[in-house]
Amino acid sequence: MDTREFCVKPVGVVHAGGESYSIEIAEPFRPALAGLDGFGHILVLWWADQVATEELRSETVCRKPYTKGPDTIGIFATRSPVRPNPIALSTVPVLGIDTAAGIIEVPFIDADDGTPVLDIKPYLPATERIREVRVPAWSAHWPQWYEDNWGFDWAAEFTFED
Question: Can you give the residue ranges of the TsaA-like domain (predicted)?
Answer without folding.
Answer: 8-132
